[in-house]
Amino acid sequence: MSFVKLLCIAATIVCGASGQLIDLYTTPSFDGSNVYATGVIQYGVSPGCTMCMIAYHTYADTITITSPSGRQASCNFNQGAAASQPQNLQCEASLGVDSAPGVADLGDWSIEAQPSVYCSIMGWLISQGTIIDIISHLGVTTTYYAGCSGTWYSCNCKWLACSSGIPTCQNTGVGLNLGSCSPYMVATYLVFYIGGVPICAPPVGTASGKSSGPCS
Question: Are residues 74 and 164 in the same domain?
Fold first, then answer.
């Protein structure tokens, strides 16, 4: 599964004469059927941090995915450890893209993280009120192909005519596996936009066309 890192909040924590670094980030992804979100807290220990030998940290994070129709999925962790121990903590939430069987939940998706880090000596290093909020979008793109030929189980097209949305989800020469094949083909794709970067799912609808559609 590939991730797109959208947001990294870094805070330098002063510990004696050394600086300790805490990285927080939330990474959404999409596999065509589910939206995923992983919340991560990374803590690094620098040599010479005398206070770290006696301090104790508590790390927590809650990740919540909310679909346009209001469906939700979440995960969380809450873990304590000595400040002298480096940490790489994470949890992953996932939510199916369909609000009903075969009906995609189109529109804006919200992915929210609520991380916190508490130090037994210094207090809140990352406040409980910290919120990382990412808005992504699930939409549909229709792509028109031309120069297509093949069999009912493998239809290959020589070129793309155009697309009704951004991006054009497939390149030329792709085997559409449509169950039918004609010189002109149309394919519909779910597209999830993460930070403006589109991720196309496999085609969810295909049909034979009489021309190159709006490209004619």
Answer: no
Q: Quick one: pLDDT band at residue 117, thresholds 50, 70, 90?
A: very high
- Do 150 and 156 touch, CB atoms closer than 8 A? yes
Q: How far apart are CA 152 and CA 165, in angstroms?
A: 27
Please tell me whether residues 37 and 102 are part of one structural domain: yes
Contact present, 15 and 49 (Cβ < 8 Å): yes
**Are the beta carbons of 36 and 63 closer than 8 angstroms?**
no
What are 200's strand-pairing partners? 191
- The parent domain of residue 184 ranges over 139-215
Instruction: Check whether residue 122 and residue 144 sit in a common domain.
Output: no
**Is the pLDDT confidence value at 37 over 70?**
yes
Residues 11 and 93 placed together within one structural domain of the fold: yes
CB 76 within 8 A of CB 93: no
- Distances from the Cα of 158 to the Cα of 148, 150, 169, 175, 180, angstroms: 6, 11, 15, 10, 16
Quote the DSSP letter at residue 177: -
For the full predicted model, state whether its pTM sits above 0.85.
no
Say how far apart CA 169 and CA 32 lie, in whole Å: 12
Q: What is the dihedral of CA 202, 63, 76, 72, to 10 degrees?
A: -70
Looking at the 3D structure of the chain, how many domains does it have?
2
The whole-angstrom separation of Cα 181 and Cα 207 is 8
Evaluated on CA atoms 153, 159, 163, 168, the torsion sign reads positive
Q: Are residues 148 and 72 in the same domain?
A: no
